[in-house]
User: Which sequence fits this backbone?
């Protein structure tokens, strides 16, 4: 094959957005951190302006969302083994060409420029071959097995097939590979005089807005707005917190649901917000102080251990938003699918069961507990709640809700309202 000659400029003094994206992917494959953390760290290290940061995130997230399919395409274009560096560069290039809609010339030129001298000819040839075969590549994708088409581990696709059926699974996989929206909730305790132009009201969720442009940082800093997903409102609706009640948010950091409890009670609930990690408490307290309530205290607590004596039977209502697999937020947390295993779901379910057992002792007779997750997996949700009820006849399931992300057009979640006799 004749490889077109390409001229390359000298090394840049600071990393370009594409070079920064490649650095993120290298570190991610080395298992060093979560994708969101890497993007933030590498962009800060390169001192990139906001527009370039958005490009880095789009590049990295696009590759991680479509990794299996991109590798499949590479395999059809180049037989034989490729080293990790070449594969990552090709994934970035193909993502720009086929997923992000970037101009062909710029995508090829900038991607080839990422490669070392020994790889440039190979990368250039493969990307130009991909362009020649674009129509066939995209048509063939529709016929591929779901795990390849939507770049999701086969075991997870099978699991969802068993729990939800084929059509719902396909819809969920398609949704997970789209770019999530960003949402904010208005704080009724500190009403805004003027709604920022970047916000669009959500008809389905009064008081919530979709962010259409830049995040309104000033309104967030002053407590007018709180960044959260509309799916979080369901657990608060089930809890139905009332002014004057003693309420525990047991796994509270960074504070989104605690802030919603403050808003729902006009700041008049006696709220205790706890978290396992003591280093997260200052940020939690800072976030909640902006919400305008004087009746909030924070504390470190490990709910995998028995309930503290001073908290037993104390609270009118407990919100228990347990650590989970995050299967409901794969659209937003792009690398969850690659980190998760069946064994990890079982480990988390065992931990959730222990936390539910211990936190239930903090509820006073006649009180209520809302168990919630950002998982859509039955083992962490309905099956776990029913196992708890079977062993605790003094508790009753009043209501539960499973929020599927592709149906709700938001994050996925589960919430169950339990009543103590």
Assistant:
């Amino acid at each position: 094959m004749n490889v077109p000659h390409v001229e390359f400029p000298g090394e840049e003094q600071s990393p370009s957005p594409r070079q920064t994206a490649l650095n993120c992917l290298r570190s991610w494959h080395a298992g060093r951190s979560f994708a969101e953390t890497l993007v933030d760290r590498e962009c800060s290290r390169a001192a990139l302006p906001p527009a370039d940061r958005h490009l880095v995130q789009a590049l990295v997230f696009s590759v991680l969302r479509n990794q299996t399919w991109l590798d499949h395409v590479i395999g059809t274009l180049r037989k034989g083994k490729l080293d990790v560096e070449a594969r990552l560069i090709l994934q970035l290039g193909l993502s720009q060409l086929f997923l992000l809609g970037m101009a062909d010339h710029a995508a090829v030129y900038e991607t080839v420029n990422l490669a070392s001298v020994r790889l440039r000819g190979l990368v250039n040839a493969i990307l130009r071959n991909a362009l020649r075969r674009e129509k066939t590549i995209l048509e063939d994708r529709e016929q591929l097995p779901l795990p390849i088409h939507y770049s999701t581990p086969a075991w997870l696709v099978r699991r969802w097939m068993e729990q939800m059926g084929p059509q719902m699974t396909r819809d969920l996989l398609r949704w997970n590979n789209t770019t999530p929206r960003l949402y904010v909730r208005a704080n009724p305790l500190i009403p805004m005089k003027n709604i920022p132009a970047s916000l669009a009201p959500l008809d389905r969720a009064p008081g919530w807005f979709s962010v259409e442009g830049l995040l309104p940082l000033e309104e967030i800093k002053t407590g007018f707005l709180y960044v959260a997903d509309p799916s979080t409102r369901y657990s608060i609706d089930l809890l139905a917190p009332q002014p004057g009640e003693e309420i525990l948010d047991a796994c509270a950091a960074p504070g989104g649901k605690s802030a919603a409890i403050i808003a729902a009670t006009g700041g008049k609930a006696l709220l205790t917000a706890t978290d396992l990690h003591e280093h997260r408490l200052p940020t939690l307290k800072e976030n909640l102080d902006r919400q305008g309530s004087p009746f909030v205290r924070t504390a470190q607590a490990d709910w995998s251990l028995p309930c503290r004596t001073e908290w037993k039977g104390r609270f009118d209502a407990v919100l228990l938003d347990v650590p989970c697999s995050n299967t409901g937020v794969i659209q937003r947390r792009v690398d969850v699918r690659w980190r998760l295993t069946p064994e990890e779901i079982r480990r988390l379910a065992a931990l959730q069961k222990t936390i539910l057992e211990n936190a239930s002792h903090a509820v006073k007779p006649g009180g209520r507990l809302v168990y919630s997750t950002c998982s859509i997996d039955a083992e962490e949700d309905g099956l776990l709640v029913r196992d708890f009820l079977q062993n605790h006849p003094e508790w009753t399931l009043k209501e539960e809700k499973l929020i599927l992300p592709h149906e709700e057009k938001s994050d996925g979640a589960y919430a169950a309202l339990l009543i103590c006799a």
